[in-house]
Structure formats: C-alpha cells, structure tokens
Amino acid sequence: MITQTFDDRDGFIWMNGQLVPWRDAKLHVLSHALHYASAVFEGERCYGGKVFKLEEHTERLFMSANILDMKIPFTPEQINEGTYALLKANNIVDGYVRPIAWRGSEQMGVPAPKAKINVAIATWVWPQYFSVDARLKGIRLMIAEWKRPSPETSPVKAKAAGLYMICTLSKHTAENKGYDDALLLDWRGQVAEATGANIFFVMNGELHTPTPDCFLDGITRRTVMGLAKARGYKVIERAIMPEEMARAQECFLTGTAAEVTPVREVGPYKFTPGEVCRALITDFDALIGRSEAASAA
Q: pTM of the entire structure?
C-alpha cells in the first residue's frame, strides 16, 4: 500500500540550478523525455552526510548524456555542489540521491535538437533495498524472459531511462511469482545482470562475473571487485552461460541499492551464502562507515 507518493512531499528538489519546493518541481506532459525516453539518470547513496563515489556517478551522468546527444548545461562541479546543497536543505544524512537530465517540451517528435536539456536532483531517506532477513539468508531470483539487447541495437553504456523498461517488466513478473528479483540474460543467452544490480558467482574460491559489454559496469561492482582483490580473491570477468551456475557455491548482487546482497536461488540453481559473501559485506560496510549494529538493524 502506498502511504506517501513522490509528488507530494515536504522539502526541496534541485532543479536547473535552483532549490525548488518539492511539490513545485514539475514538467509538462509533452516533455520529450516522457514520450521518447530521452533521459539519463544516476542512483546514489549518501552515508553519514557523504555521497558514496559522487564524482564517479556525476562523470557517468555526463557520459550517458553525451551518448544520448544531450549537453548538460551545468558543470560536474555545479552538479556536485547542488547535490550537497540539496542534502543540507532537506536535512538528509543517510539517504538516496537521484540526479536526472532530460529533454523538455520545446519540440515534439522523434528529433528534438532544440529541446532544452533540464537537470534535477532529488534526495530522500531510503532504507536498505532488500530486508535484513534477505541480506542474511540470500534472495531468490527467477530468470527473466526479457534479454539485454546487443550494443548494436541500444546505447547500452548509458544509464538511460529507456533501457529500464525490460527491468520493470521483469521485476513485476518476478515479484508476482514470489521472487525478490530477476536475472536477465543477454541476446546471446549469456548471464548479464539483475534488474538493477550486477551479479557475481563464487566458484572454488574465485569470483566470476559477466563481462559488462552490453550492460552497465556498475560503480559498486568495481568497488566490490577492488575489495575482493584486496582480500586476495581472484576476480575473473568473462562470458558466463546459465548452466555454469550449477557449479557455483555462492552468488551475490552488487549495486547502489543492493549494496552487497547474497543470492540463494536463481531459477533452478541453488547457492549457500558463505564466507566470501560475509567477508565482502563486512568490507563494504566498513568502507561506507556502517557499524555492525547498524548493518544488523
């Protein structure tokens, strides 16, 4: 049951360089982004008043915009400064940050070279994506019917709004069937990612993860790979076929929302969250400054 919608809240949203009252941050129904998905965004987490990997997220926002032929009318420094001004205005210490850039309503039709590029940043308090119980026992994923497209068919390196349509559909189907999330394969039938997170498998003490050639090379993904290597684990990026999951002992997701979340089931394949999952959760929590007590809460 929805108790509070995202259009009716107190606080402010940073919009085109100004702090705007939350309820006044609006766009026209004929905005190009609504009809043609000409929008790019980021998902960020704030821990203890500091946005995790903010510079990397902002850099990717600009890269995504460039891929979609959108020139953001602000500098990365202005976006970062706006983020912290917004967090202060909304009194957010631990929460979620959502910057987005989109084409406005100046032109309607497939081409819109003269449409204004708008930028907004919103932030709100947001708990951990999966429950504590799921984080300890592992979540259940079904294998989605939708597949990640070829780089020849979509701008797969951009964090673009349109690329998430199949994620929404897959997540809805998974939840309707009693699963927590879904695993998407790619157009070749190889393991790709979950609906909003990257995936790793532990095979005989080594970490195996799909090569991100048709989906995002997540910022949290790269962070966790670094943590794993620091612990001495071998990390292998390669093409992974679904049947190879049968020989994995552990599995986990990584992402801004998921952080490090163990998986106990992907379709017919079963895993037992163990030493590697626990170690990387501990290291990630330490990196973001989360105490053991807070992690278990």
A: 0.93
